[in-house]
Amino acid sequence: MISFARLLLRRVILLVTLLACVFVAVDLLPGNTARAVLGREATPEQIAAKERELGLDRPLAVRFWDWIAGVATGDFGRTARGRPVDDLLADKFPPTLLLGGLALALTVFASLALGAWWATRPGGAAARVLQPATTTAVAIPEFVIATVLILVFALALGWLPAVTITGRSGFPTGAEMLVLPVLALALPQIGWNTRVVRAALSDAALAPHVESAVLDGLSGRVVLARHVLPFALPTIVASFATTVGMLLGGALVVETIFNYPGLGAVLAGSVADRDTSVVAAVVALSGVVIMVVLAVADGIRSWSLRGRR
After folding, report:
1. Radius of gyration (C-alpha) of the chain in whole angstroms
2. Distance of CA 29 to the CA centre of its chain
3. Under DSSP, is residue 166 helix (H, G, I), strand (E, B) or coil?
4. 8: exposed, middle or buried (C-beta count within 10 Å: 0-12, 13-18, 19+)?
5. With 258 labelled, which of 156, 175, 209, 274 sits at a CA distance of 20 to 30 A?
6. Mean pLDDT per 10-residue section of the chain, whose length is 309 residues
7. pTM for this structure?
8. Please, are residues 220 and 120 in contact by the beta-carbon 8 Å criterion?
9. In sequence order, what are the residues at sequence separation of 6 or more whose Cβ sits closer than 8 angstroms to the Cβ of residue 230?
10. Maximal C-alpha separation, the chain
């Protein structure tokens, strides 16, 4: 079995490789960072001076090495417009974390409830409702769901706002502004995870010890909680851990649609400016969050498998 240290090292190497690919991809984008910052009226001399100031006249490999060395000390550098990237992330990442955290909590609660309902009633109304509903939810991307939610609940019914108004704290001014973005993020993941939970519980229910528990006269809830769920937990936790990455990626799209004050607008603007440091910093921060979640998932999986090896 791969030790935790080796697994962590592999993930760090994978993240560094991904960041190198981000540097290359942004460098290949059409346009010029210095011109994007200075505007169309900038002279060639001004653009050349700005490129020297930003270090864009150096080889790409050198720029990447200097940036990754700074990240190792906690310094993400500066944006092309001169603002420290650390300050930018400190302002914009908490709202994104709030949005993703609420969507994850809704996904976990709803998929566990719906998956258990489906698994315990495989031939009833649960299967007839959830089979097509979850397939549809998985097949439709977040931006389509977001558009439909806006059309129905904001424009047609007028129940919820279609855009987000930001307060001085940097967060939405009202909880109602979180409802549609959270639903747009969570619905596809609820569809997928409901199917995973149902399959994991159904497979675990076939184990001999579960049949023995049923023959002993234990109630269905006790059998599910004590004898089925622990054996299905590794698969379910792995699916939820994967969902974190999907939610972070989807949040960048959903935030743009709802004008939400998170990393989505920052990433869109940095791509337009070809601001490599900001794009790479967003990817690095998201990667670290995913790595932490995967480490927690590995710990839960090891705990659930104790005594079975």
Report:
1. 23
2. 24
3. strand
4. middle
5. 274
6. 71 88 85 79 83 84 89 84 86 89 94 88 79 88 90 91 84 89 93 91 77 66 72 85 87 87 83 84 86 80 62
7. 0.84
8. yes
9. 304
10. 85
List Cα–Cα distances, 235 to 81, 98, 258, 293, in angstroms.
45, 26, 33, 15
Length of the chain: 309
The helix, strand and coil proportions of the chain, stated in percent and rounded to the nearest 5, come to 75, 0, 20
Question: For the segment 61-75, what is each residue's pLDDT rounded down to a tens digit?
Answer: 988 998 888 888 888
Q: Confirm if 304 and 233 have CB atoms less than 8 A apart.
A: yes
Place of tokens 């497979």: 203
Q: Provide φ and ψ at 78, rounded to 5°.
A: -120, 155
Taking alpha carbons only, the member of 186, 295, 198 closest to residue 243 is 186
Tell me how far apart the alpha carbons of residues 217 and 207 are, in angstroms, rounded to a whole number. 16
Could you give the CA distance from residue 298 to residue 275 in angstroms, rounded to a whole number? Answer: 35
Distance from C-alpha of 267 to C-alpha of 278, rounded to nearest angstrom = 7
Backbone angles phi, psi at 172, to 5 degrees: -60, 145
Token pair belonging to 199: 């399959």
